[in-house]
Amino acid sequence: MDLEREIGEIKRTLKALDEKVGEITRSVRAYCDYVTERRVTEWFERYEELTGRRLSGLERRIQTLEDRLGGEKRP
Q1: What pTM value is reported for the model?
Q2: Distance from C-alpha of 16 to C-alpha of 8, rounded to nearest angstrom
């Protein structure tokens, strides 16, 4: 009887440990998802900023060229 009781306690302990490991695994996965999402968001923000600056520079160049062409056409 004592052996059966000890086996039952061991089973309960193992079940409790298994649940805790599952909780830890879910927590780690959630943290990894959070960090990944944050890094991707930061990267996209930097990319959008850089792209915006480049487009702005191109727009200024186009405007300058159009102004020069417009000035050359007027004799």
Answers
A1: 0.56
A2: 12
